[in-house]
Every structure is written in C-alpha cells, then in structure tokens.
Design brief:
CATH superfamily of the largest domain: DD-peptidase/beta-lactamase superfamily
Largest sheet: 8 strands, parallel
Distance between the termini: 46 Å
CATH architecture of the largest domain: 3-Layer(aba) Sandwich
Length: 991
C-alpha cells in the first residue's frame, strides 16, 4: 500500500502535469515553429557528411590545463566539426574564455555541457558555488526550493556559456552499497525522486538551460561503478517498469530535453553478453524512444568509462552507440577513431542515413531552442563574481536549512530553550581541531569543546567518558566520513563502541555530517540530527537549528535501519533565538552594507574613536557583525567582535528598564504610582511623589547628575585632583572595600552618602523633559530593596543567564581577561589611571561598578539578544521573559515627551532631523545611546536591531568627534539604504 507521502507526491505531479503541459511542450520536436524549421533545414542542407557526423560527437574539454591543451581541443573542433563540448575541471572565467574561443572556430555553434549535478562547483570546486548534493536535497519537503535551485544553476550556467547540464540524477538509490550513485540520487522512493527531479529540471529549462536526466535505465541498484567495470542489473521488466523507469518516464512526459544512457548490463533489456545499455538498440530505440515517447536528445554516458571500453574498442563503441539510437556520443577516447567508425558504419549500411539525419536535425532543433543560431561572446571579467552571487549563497542556505533532519527527538531536547538549566560539552570525532559546528554552538551557550580522531583506544575512551559524563548534555558530531558502505561510512568500530557507552551516562545529541546510511549504527540513540554533508556552512546551520534559530523539517530520503526508515524525521520549531546568515537571506544588500566600513574607518582615521563594532540583525538573523580599528591609537590590539564594551547609559534599558518591566509583570510596581511606594527611603523627601514612569521618561524634575567624585579628591597642592586618603586605599582593607578602579578602593560608607545626596538634591522648577541619571540610581536601589539581592545578581539570574548571554555583566574585570575590554579613558582628573574593565562613569564606579544608570558591559551579540527579546515582545529562545503588553507600554511615548518612552529613547516625532538616530528610522524605533560611544536601536517596522559599540572616550572623554560626525546615525542610515523594498530585484534569478 502506498504511503500517504507517496500519494500526495503523485497527486502533486498530476496537478503539475495538467497545469504546465503547454510550457513543457517547448521541448517537443513536433511543436517546431516555421522559423525554427527553416533554420534547421537551411543549416542541415549546407552540411556535408562529415559535418553531420561531427554533430553527433561531444568532446571533453578542461579549462585548467593550459594553452597547449586548449589548442589541442581547438584543433579537434576545427578538424572534425564536432557538435559539442563537455567541460570538466576549471574555473568560471577560464571556461568562458575557452568557450568564447571554441565557439568562434565552429560554423555551427557548439552545444556546451557540464556535469553540474550540484551546480558549477561540481567541476569548479574552488571557484564556484556548490549546492547540496541530491541525497541531501531528497530530505527537503518544500519542492519549490528545487525549482529555485534549477533556476539559479541555469542563471550561472548561461553566464559562462553553458547550454546543457547533465542533471538531474533520476536514479532510485535502492542499494545502500551503491558505490557510484549514493549521494547523487534523491533517495530510494520513486515518488520523491520523481517530484524532485521534475522541479530541478523545470527550474533549469524554464530559464534556458537544458536538463538531462541520467542514468537511464536506472543505476540505483548496482554495487559496481561503471567507471571501472560493467555493472549488472538483473531485474525483470515488471520491476524495471515500476521502479527504475518510473522517474525517467515521468520526466519524459513532463518535457525534459535530454536523457543520458548508462553503461549497464541489463539482461532483461538486452541478453547479449557484455552489452552495455548505452549500446543496446532495444534499450534506447525501442524502450526510451518508442515506448516512452522521448523526443529529446539522447546522450551516452562518458565513452571513456570502463563499463564500455573493457568490452568494445575505440570507434566501434561509438558507432554501436549511434546504431543503438543515441544522438550524441559523450567524450569518446578518440574523436578520430569515432569518426572513422561512423563513416564505415554509414558506408556499409549498418547505420542508415535516415537515422543519422534524424539525430542531426534533432540536435540542430535543440541548438535553435537554446539560442545557438549565432554565438555572441560573453564578457569574462566579472564571470566569477556573477556566478558566486550573494543571492546564490542565500538560496544554498535555504536548501540546507530545509534538508536538515531531526531523525529522532524522543526526549524533546531540541530545540534547546533556557540554557542556564543545563551544562554542555561537545565532542567532534574525526576532527583535528575545533570544528565549525562547535564554533557555532559556542554562540549559544557556554560549553567545553573536545575533539578526537576516529580511533579511540580503551584509555582514550575511559578519559573521555570520565570528562564528558559530568555534563547534562553532550553534542557529538561525526566528521571526515565517506560514502563507502565497505568502510562503515568512515566511522570506526571504536568510535561506535565509545558513543554507545557515553549514551548510557548522559544525554547525547548526535549530529552526523555524512552518509545517512550510517544511521544503522545508532538505533539506540534518542536525539539524532542528520546533516548529510560536512562543509562548514552545513555544520554552522546544524548548530543553529539545534538551538532553535529555525525549525527542522527534513525527512530521511532512504532507509538505514528499522528506527531510521525512509520519511523519518520529527519537525522542530523555531524558538525565537538568533540565527546567523548573510544579508541577502533577509532581503538586504551586502554591497550596500559593505559601505559601513567606509564610515567606520573614516571615524577611526580622524580620531573619533580608536575602534568600534557594528552589528545588524534583521528578521531574527544576525547579518552583519564586524569590528574596526584597535583598542587604542597605538594600534597594538585589533578590535574583535567578541570584545566587551562599557555600555554606559545603554545600561538604563539593558538592565534597569527590563527589570522594571519584569517588576510590572510580577505585580511589584505600577508605573503610575510614586517610586516611594517601593523605595521607602524616599518618603519625607522632595522625591516622595515622583511617579515611576515620569522618572524613567526624564520628566520628573530631577537634576541631570551630581559630581560625587569631586567630593573625594584631595585639594592639597601636592596631590591636587587625586583620590584623597580620607576616602581611598590602594588595597582593600576594612571599610575601604569598594573597587572603583585598579588598586583603588572607596570607603564603603560613602555609598550611603551618595544616595543621601540624591534624596536631598534639589528639584528643577518644572517637570519638563531633562535627561537625568539620578532616577536610575534610585531604580536600581529599589530593585535591591524589593528583592534582597544585588542589582547585578538580579538582572543576571532573571535575564542574562537564561538568555544564554556570555559577556553581559557588571564588573567584567572579575570574570574576563582585561584585554577583552577596550579601555575607556586615561583618567587624569579622578582615578589617575587607565580605565579598563571598570566602569567609566564616576558615580557608578563609586557604587562598586553596579548601578541603574551605568555599569553594564557586553559584547555586541549579547546586547543584540536583549534587544531582539524586546523586539519579539519579551520572547526569546522558547521562553517568555516579559509580557507583550508590558513591552508595548514601555515603548509607548510618555504623554509629555516626543522622544521618550518609559526608559527608552525613541525617534523624536516632529523634529526636522533626529539627532539620536538615522532619519530613516521609523517612528516606533526605540533604544538608547551611551556616553562611551555606544548605541542600540530596535525598529519594529523593519524587524531590525542595530548595535554600535565603541570607546570614543579613549584617551579623553572630551573627544566629541563621533557625535559631530554623526557616525552612529550614518551607519544606521546605511543599513536602511541596504534594505531592498519588497518585490524589488536582487533575487537569485536576477541577471
């Protein structure tokens, strides 16, 4: 009985057939137009016998073998008037250069082909993009992506002068030990293979590149490689007709332009000894041409392969291939011998003139349809850049994401939500260093990373078990695998033995970067991700999927074992956690974003800041994260994206405001009530009636700030403006325990003085807008009063740890190496030292580095996570931190303000040009700036997060060039310029 999936696929094919029949007929010979017929007839009648025979030959060509080889190809083109070229290894620009050359030598344009099953990268490994191989594509459920891939391969192929792609592989891989098809097939299910081959073919042919299905009559159930010998397929006709033929018959019905015939021995099709199907008239003429009704071009598989050369001599093989009904002979070992044998067969009447003429006219017809009436040379200079477009890269990412398969998720570990409740480690087997998979895992959670060779002796196993069993979750990834069943797919027995032991001692999440047939070794594992291929991008996206950056929908395209059968796979859901991608994946131009570098470097070159980091996230994807400059103007320490910056007043939103939001959710505060209700020390002061939302919107009448530090400086001539011994010590002792900077400790009792002075400070005569730090001192104090824990501990346990943040903290000098924090100033007015790792703000420093107005440090990624959580209305990583209505209330403008929400700075409505952000930002944009040269903005209308971090205050806080140059705003503006309007150009099909 058919599976539900098979029935659905059949129905889909029926719908596609009836909906697109007219379009498919473009490849039907009987639909020739008068113009086409005239061209074909006029060219045909102008050809002599040798020219006609030459059209039946497609010779080998390389673009990586130098001028002497290229001239030898050119000589064959000139001498034998061949009909086509099949290119192998090379580069886009060289192949196009030689194509231009060879085409000018041929009176009738050459049909140029390539084996590009997974794109041009199959033959141009180092210089052109490779899409996933067909077995991985077989896992995809959204078949439109296969159409888009065909469309993109057509664009690339045409750009470098191609006319035919020898793809798709339509073989049904029903033999796990198949040494030649394997990963080249869409899998074992005839319906899945057919529908995917159809979409791939249609994408190419709708966009001007002829597809060629291979390897007829079906190479999927063999255990011999026809490159080295003649495989035997012993199935009888009923089986061949229902399985092996099925995809080919369907593709013929749907208008495929070419079919390639394999070198197979199939006794039920041709009982002669050692007779390859490629030389079998019954297989080609009677079955493919007549019974199936194929009207397109029939190509042989490579005639150099031993599946044919072991049994037929050069020349005879090619003549027999034409006699059997092939139209074009691919890469004969000797063009001269092939031509001589064809002349003899024709002269002796073994091959009829009628058959030759029919093949030549068929080839000419397809040349006309492929635009090969007159060749126009193509520009070489931008060939590589045009082929390797960012749009193509974005499509590749989508294909990989849709193919990743969560084979089993029995324990519902995937995707991981809160990471603070688990301890993680990773082990990459078959790796000699940290893998791309492990590097991306590190973006989401703190973990120990290990790697190992494939062979694990008893001592190594024991050591790894002792170390890894301490962790609640261990990510294990398998690398450097093979497709050979005879070699256990590249997995050692000792690795399998070890993993089974580890699986009994902790929760193992197994990711396999290789053959899905290897799943047969892991039936007892409950969390298995099949990733199919090993390249770095696949590893990166696999890690993202495990943490919920996107959901996995792939299904196994083959059966490996009882627990890993065809169509197995559990859907996982995206959980709102950041992904990492390229701009084009979310409709943003990389070229435009690259101009950010010019603005950043301009600022650095004129001394506006020693260095900076810029991060852009759109639609939940971090698409730009780059560091510029150095920690100081000495240029001895380059800025890194992982650097931890003093956020200054960004603390107000990234610590204090989100705390107030959580308090509101928990029923601990009411924004419309006085702060004194929650901080009793304000009772009896002029602050008693101040309402929380007025304080947070800077509309409460508070002074801007109080220079507390000046009270603690010495005023004697010999120590003017230096920390007074009355208040400070260079080592912690007794009451002198508050760290203000390196080797500088404030007397603890002065903290009480700070808050007393705030409570006793005078008020301004009106309560209009005036930016003030003082309210945020009090809000942090209120959090500590209400919770009984330090403000830093509260925000860490409530937000930072559950969010998986790895750098966001107060007083980073306690946790990180000092050179991870760019210095903020050479302080010569207070602390008399370089400020690095300690908060720059004087008041926050005198509170021990922890306050509500300043003191938070973070790298760009961690700050972006906080802002993304707010953009997602309080949700991130599968966990709700804040209620949507609460977020809405806080990012709504205060009744008396055009630019302030509750805690947040916002786009200043009504202003002719906003000074705090780009004028292209939407009116709903919210965020904050920081004194040290930082800012972050969220634009809900564009689903955008922007982070800019710098240490513009180094070496002096009096440096205002960054603000005068509008550097932060201009960079933000460039982000908006890079966003393509919906429906605009830039898709993967753009020419």
């Amino acid at each position: 009985m058919k599976s539900v999936a098979a029935i659905l696929l059949t129905l889909m094919l029926c719908v596609l057939f009836f909906a697109r029949t007219a379009a498919q007929k473009v490849y039907s010979i009987d639909q020739a137009s008068p113009v086409e017929m005239h061209w074909v007839d006029s060219v045909f009648t102008s050809m002599n016998t040798d020219e006609r025979l030459g059209q039946l030959i497609m010779i080998r060509a390389h673009s990586d073998k130098g001028p002497e080889y290229a001239e030898s190809v050119a000589e064959i083109v000139r001498k034998y008037k061949v009909g086509g070229l099949c290119f192998f290894q090379g580069t886009p620009e060289k192949q196009l250069e030689y194509t231009n050359k060879y085409q000018t030598l041929s009176r009738i344009p050459l049909m140029v082909a390539i084996d590009g099953e997974w794109g041009l990268g199959m033959r141009m490994k180092e210089s052109a993009i490779s899409f996933p191989k067909q077995l991985m594509l077989g896992a995809i459920q959204n078949n439109d992506l296969l159409y888009k891939m065909g469309q993109e391969i057509a664009r690339q192929g045409k750009r470098i002068g191609l006319n035919v792609n020898f793809a798709p592989v339509a073989d049904i891989n029903s033999n796990a030990r198949n040494p030649v098809i394997g990963y080249r097939s869409f899998g074992e299910d005839r319906y899945n293979v057919t529908v995917k081959a159809y979409h791939y073919m249609k994408g190419m042919q709708d966009n001007g590149l002829m597809a060629c299905a291979k390897h007829f009559p079906g190479h999927g159930d063999t255990d011999v490689d026809s490159h080295y010998d003649l495989p035997v397929v012993n199935h009888q006709m009923p089986r061949l007709d229902s399985v092996e033929f099925y995809p080919f018959r369907s593709l013929v019905n749907y208008g495929i332009g070419g079919v390639m015939v394999a070198h197979l021995q199939v006794p039920s099709l041709d009982a002669r000894d050692d007779r390859p199907t490629s030389l079998s008239r019954n297989t080609i003429t009677h079955v493919l041409r007549r019974a199936m009704g194929f009207e397109g071009v029939i190509f042989t598989d490579g005639m150099e392969m031993k599946g044919v050369t072991e049994h037929f001599t050069n020349g005879i093989a090619e003549a027999e291939a034409i006699l059997a009904g092939n139209d074009m002979i691919c890469v004969p070992p000797s063009t001269a011998q092939a031509m001589e044998a064809l002349r003899r067969y024709l002269r002796e009447g073994k091959i009829s003139q009628e058959q030759i003429d029919a093949s030549v006219k068929r080839i000419l017809t397809y040349k006309f349809r492929l635009g090969l009436t007159k060749y126009v040379p193509k520009d070489i200079t931008t060939a590589r850049k045009d082929v390797n477009s960012n749009q193509a890269e974005a499509l590749k990412r989508e294909l990989i994401k849709n193919a990743l398969t969560m084979v089993r998720n029995t324990q519902n570990l995937i995707p991981f939500g809160r990471v603070d409740t688990l301890s993680f480690a990773s082990l990459s087997i078959g790796a000699d260093g940290l893998t791309a998979f492990q590097k991306r895992l590190a973006s989401y959670a703190k973990m120990t990373h290990l790697y190992s060779g494939k062979e694990l002796n008893d001592d190594r196993q024991a050591a790894l078990l002792a170390q890894l069993s301490k962790y609640k979750v261990v990510f294990v990834s398998l690398h450097d695998m093979t497709s050979a069943a005879s070699k256990n797919y590249g997995i050692s027995y000792t690795s399998i033995q070890f993993l089974k032991k580890l699986n009994t001692q902790t929760k193992v999440v197994l990711s396999i970067f290789g053959s899905p047939y290897s799943l047969k070794f892991f039936d007892e594992f409950e969390s298995i991700q099949m990733a199919y291929e090993s390249e770095a991008l696949v590893q990166d996206l696999s890690a993202q999927a495990l943490f919920g950056a996107f959901g996995m929908t792939g299904r196994l395209p083959i059966t490996a074992s009882e627990r890993s059968r065809f169509n197995a796979g559990e859907e996982t859901q995206a959980n709102g956690r950041f992904g990492y991608s390229i701009p084009e994946s979310v409709g943003v131009s990389s070229d435009t974003l690259s101009r950010i570098e010019l603005i950043a470097n301009e600022a650095i070159n004129v001394g506006a800041a020693p260095g900076c980091v810029v991060l852009v996230a759109k639609d939940g994807q971090i698409i730009y994260e780059k560091a510029f400059g150095h920690h100081t103007y000495l240029k001895d320490h380059p800025t890194q994206t992982s650097d931890i910056f003093d956020l200054a007043s960004v603390t107000k939103i990234a610590a204090t405001t989100i705390s107030m939001m959580r308090f509101m959710d928990d029923g601990r505060i009411d924004l419309r009530k006085p702060l004194s209700n929650y901080l009793p020390s304000l009772n009896g002061t002029n602050k008693a009636a101040m309402v929380v939302q007025d304080i947070m919107a800077h509309n409460a009448g508070l002074l801007g700030w109080l220079p507390f530090y000046k009270q603690t400086l010495s005023h004697t001539p010999d120590s003017l403006n230096k920390p007074s011994l009355k208040y400070y010590r260079t080592t912690p002792e007794g009451e002198f325990s508050v760290p203000v900077a390196g080797n500088l400790f404030l007397k603890k009792t002065f903290i009480d003085s700070i808050f007393m002075q705030i409570r006793q400070s005078e008020l301004r005569p009106n309560i209009n807008y005036r930016y003030s730090d003082l309210g945020f001192y009090m809000l942090a104090q209120m959090v500590e009063h209400q919770t009984g824990v330090g403000f830093d501990k509260y925000v860490d346990s409530t937000f930072y740890a559950p969010l998986g943040l790895q750098s966001a903290t107060f007083n980073p000098w306690k946790k990180f190496a000092i050179d991870q924090m760019p210095p903020t100033e050479e302080d010569r007015y207070f602390r008399q030292q370089r400020i690095q790792g300690y908060v720059h703000d004087m008041g926050a420093a005198m509170l021990g580095g922890v306050s509500g107005h300043a003191g938070l440090f973070a790298n760009a990624n961690d700050l972006a996570v906080i802002m993304q959580m707010l953009l997602q209305q309080g949700f991130y990583g599968g966990h709700r931190y804040l209620e949507p209505q609460t977020v809405h209330n806080f990012i709504t403008r205060h009744p008396r303000s055009v630019r302030r929400g509750v805690g947040f700075d916002m786009y200043p409505m009504g202003a002719s040009y906003p000074t705090n952000m780009s004028g292209q930002a939407s009116e709903s944009t919210f965020g904050h700036t920081g004194f040290t040269g930082t800012c972050t903005w969220v634009d809900p209308e564009h689903n955008l997060v922007y982070v800019f971090l710098s240490n513009r205050t180094f070496p002096s806080m009096n440096n205002n060039r960054l603000e005068k140059m509008d550097t932060r705003q201009r960079i933000q503006g460039m982000v908006y310029k890079a966003i393509r309007p919906k429906g605009a150009g830039g898709s993967s099909t753009a020419q």
